[in-house]
């Protein structure tokens, strides 16, 4: 990890884990390696971010209002809480996305911190040039966040032992990783960084 590194943990929320409203198969297996990554970054004095879906109850993102998905991660519900095993450092910065009822907002770059700042502006302020990413789901929010990070001019590494995918169509996650690599994303495991 370089001194200009930061870690982004994407949407490790109850509704995206097994038993949740939109559970990712094996989604909870990312918790332990992400905890190790978060600890390493925090101990090195590097920033840790955690994005979360934070949808209003009525949003076009949900099937009943014309979207693709069943209701999930509704603001203030247990399903929107981070997985209970996820150990975020005390100073981790939380990015809420999906707040606008008219937008899907898959990418953490479409969210805001508590003070209204965007992830991009916060990364720039902190001098982060290399963003490491893990979380849920490989083929949706991780993919969108990684591609937006590349478009923002960042070096990006996706931690492959820290992601799991929806795979609506078999192989979607593998295709998403291939797309990210073609865009310039590097792949690594927690132990390799």
Overall description:
The chain is α/β, with parallel strands linked by helices and 193 residues long. The chain has one domain (5-192): Rossmann fold. Helix content is 24%, strand content 19%. It contains 4 helices and 6 strands; from the N terminus they run βαββαβαβαβ. The chain has helices at residues 31-43, 119-126, 138-151, 172-182; strands at 5-10, 48-53, 93-97, 130-136, 155-164, 186-188. The chain has a 6-stranded parallel β-sheet with strand order 3-2-1-4-5-6, sandwiched between helices. Helix 3 (138-151) links the parallel strand 4 (130-136) and strand 5 (155-164). Helix 3 (138-151) packs parallel to helix 4. The radius of gyration is 15 Å and the shape is globular. The mean pLDDT is 96.
CATH architecture: 3-Layer(aba) Sandwich
Q: How many strand units?
A: 6
Into which percent range does the helicity of residues fall?
Answer: 10-25%
Q: What form results from the Cα inertia axes?
A: globular
Strand order of the largest sheet: 3-2-1-4-5-6
Give the CATH level 1 class.
Alpha Beta
């Amino acid at each position: 990890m370089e001194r200009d590194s930061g870690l982004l943990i994407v949407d490790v929320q109850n509704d995206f884990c097994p038993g949740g409203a939109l559970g990712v198969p094996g989604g909870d297996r990312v918790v332990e390696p992400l905890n190790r990554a978060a600890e390493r970054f925090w101990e090195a004095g590097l920033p840790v971010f955690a994005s979360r879906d934070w949808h209003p109850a009525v949003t076009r993102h949900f099937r009943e209002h014309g979207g693709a998905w069943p209701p999930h991660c509704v603001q203030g519900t247990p399903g929107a809480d981070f997985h209970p095993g996820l150990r975020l450092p005390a100073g981790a910065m939380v990015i809420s996305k999906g707040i606008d009822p008219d937008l899907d907002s898959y990418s953490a770059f479409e969210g805001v911190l508590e003070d209204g700042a965007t992830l991009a502006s916060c990364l720039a302020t902190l001098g982060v040039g290399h963003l490491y990413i893990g979380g849920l789901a490989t083929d949706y929010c991780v993919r969108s966040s990684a591609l937006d990070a590349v478009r923002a001019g960042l070096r990006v590494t996706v931690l492959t032992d820290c992601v799991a995918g929806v795979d609506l169509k078999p192989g979607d996650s593998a295709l998403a990783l291939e797309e990210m690599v073609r865009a310039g994303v590097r792949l690594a495991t927690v132990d390799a960084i």
